[in-house]
Every structure is written in C-alpha cells, then in structure tokens.
Amino acid sequence: MSYATLSTTFSSSATSEYTFTGLGWTAELDADFAPLAEAGLTPARIIRVDRGQCDVVLADPETGELRTVRADSRPVGDPDPINCPCTGDWVAVDLAASPMPSIAALLPRGTAIIRKSAGSRSDGQVLAANVDTVLIAVSLAADPDLGRIERFLALAWESGAEPIVVLTKADLVSDADFVRQDVEGIAPGVTVLVVSAETGEGIDVLRACAPGSSALIGQSGAGKSTLTNALVGTDVMTVQQTRAVDEKGRHTTTTRELIALPGGGVVIDTPGLRGVGLYGGEGLAHAFSDIEALAEDCRFHDCSHRSEPGCAVAAALLDGTLPQRRMDSYLKLQRENEWIASRSDARLAAERLKKWKAITRSVKARP
C-alpha cells in the first residue's frame, strides 16, 4: 500500500494532536506518554516494520492531522527480539532526529501475540502488539485441522486479547454450520463465526464483534487478506488464488501491516503461519479450560491424568465425554510449554553467568 493511500486512510481518524481514539489510543497511554511529551517527542503507532526502519502514523504537530512517517527504529534495538518494535506498537518519535525521524522509546504493550521462533531456538517472535481481538482465520475450503486451531487459540489467549475463530470461504461449502459446531466443541468460551468475503455473509457481524484493534492470524490460503479487504470495503491488500490441489496459499502477505477501518478501529494483517510454536504462559489453560475444569475434580491435586485413582480426566476419557484426540493435543502442547520454560530458564542462567564472568574479569584487570 502506498504512502498516499495510508495518509488518506488515516487522516479521517485524527481528532487532536495527542488523541488517536480511532487507532486505539487510551487514557493509560496518554499518562504513559506524558514525560515523553515533555521531552519534545511525538506519539505514533507503528504501521509496518522493515529492517532497521518502520512506517508510523502520527498527528502532525502543526495541523493535528494524521500522516505517515518513515522512522529509524534502530535506536531502540534490543538483543531480545520480543523487545524490538513491532507492528501495532505505540512509540515515541523524535521528529527532529537526523538524518531521519527515529523511534526514541516503546510505550508499554497492553497485549502481544508471541510465538516461538522457527526452528530449535527458544526465542520469541512478536506477531502483533496492542490488539483487543485476535481473529483466527480458518478456511472452510479444506477440512479444518482441529489440533492446529487449538494451537492458535492457545497463542491468542496467551496474548491477553480475546480470540475469535473466523471460518472463511463459506460460499464454497454447504456444511459450514456443521463445521462451526465441531470448532465450537474445541473452543470453549470463544465466538466462532462463519463468513464469506465473496458474498458478504457474516462480515457485518464480524465488524460488530471486533471493534478497536484486531489482528488476523492463520495459515496461508485462509483468506486473511481477502477478509481484510472486506472489512475495509476496498482492495487494500493483494490476494492470490490458493492451489487447487491442496488449498494452500502462496504467502501473498509478506509483512505485518496495520490498516485503518471505516468508522474507527484497525486490523493488522499478518503473513501465513506454517508453524505455530507456543511461547509458554497461561494460554494453554484458557484454550483447554474444559480439561482444566475436569482436573479440579481429580482426587490428587498433582494428578498426571494417566494411572492415578479417582482421576476425573481419565473418567471423562473412558465415558467419551472428553475425546482422546483433544487430550493428546493438550498433553503435546503442555510438553512444548514445559520445554520452552526449561530453555528460557537455561538461557537466563547463561546470561547471568556471562554477566558475572565479565564483572570478574573487570575486577581482576584493576591495578
């Protein structure tokens, strides 16, 4: 999307120099930014991030109208990728910096979608920040993978935002309601919507269910960019057809981008996710709240749900009220969380050891 289009899209949301209510600005953010304002910095929200630079939307200090600015994000670079600027972040911009405006500080995040980095590393990767709702796009053009949806739900719950499962491409199937019922069975407490960007079915309901800031996540080919276009009401994102053989997408979206919605609110479109590695936390307990509730009735508080007597979870598996597939998924994700926790602890221990070795060398080097 061009800068001109961005400026036109965002200018209608401006109300005053330090008010971005249409973009998610809150009284809490206003209080956090107060000392930064005294330093002559300008509040902004990151639209997209490139290597070392990012596009931000801010209120022009003279006119108050929103405009986009290219800024250097390296001044707030951090060895931990979780602390680096991300799409959706609220930041303080130094417009007087040379040779170009620069990001001087990140404001505290209200929410953050964090997944484990690809491969064997245990680092986290922030997909989007400061969103109220996580829209999990699942294509109805292929049989939904319930285990993968459970992963996305755990990821969404852990962010601190509210998840909504959006079953897309309803115009291509005749059994959408049956699939919705199956998904509702593995998504306790979560709204599941059936939509079609082609016919407009469910789009108005989706808009009503996801005010404020939202992020679209899902596999390639799930229809995220098409859904973004439907929410905006115009073609702001490029889309491609999925492969007819397996209904997989072609990674049309290559970067995370924040887009303003008519009437206020924003949506962050994200690239398709091949892997959905969890990064620990309480998201798993929310995603599997039915199993967690059963576990409270076990005879032993530390029950492993395998061979202990009086296990309520084992009883539910035996009588069929809890599907074995769901239990297997829960245990698998639980093991992943435990691995991440152990790796994180090991990494912190290594960092502490490195720090003390440096101190020791410094002391020995003194005359």
Measured on Cα atoms, how large is the radius of gyration?
23 Å
CATH fold-level assignment of the largest domain: Rossmann fold
Order of helices and strands: HHEEEEEEEEHEHEHEHEEHHHH
The rough form would be described as flat
**Range of strand content:** 15-25%
Q: How would you characterize the largest beta sheet?
A: 6 strands, mixed
Number of domains: 3
Mean pLDDT: 83
Would you kindly provide a written description of the structure presented here, covering whatever features stand out?
The chain is of the alpha/beta class. It has 3 domains: about 100 residues, Nucleic acid-binding proteins (OB fold (Dihydrolipoamide Acetyltransferase, E2P)), CATH 2.40.50; about 160 residues, P-loop containing nucleotide triphosphate hydrolases (Rossmann fold); about 70 residues, Probable gtpase engc, domain 3 (Ribonucleotide Reductase Protein R1, domain 1, Orthogonal Bundle), CATH 1.10.40.50. Helix content is about 35%, strand content about 20%. The strands form 3 sheets. The chain has a 6-stranded mixed beta sheet with strand order 10-9-8-11-13-12, sandwiched between helices. A 5-stranded antiparallel beta sheet has the order 3-2-1-4-5. A hairpin with a 7-residue loop joins strand 6 and strand 7. It is flat. It starts with a helix and ends with a helix. The N terminus is likely disordered.
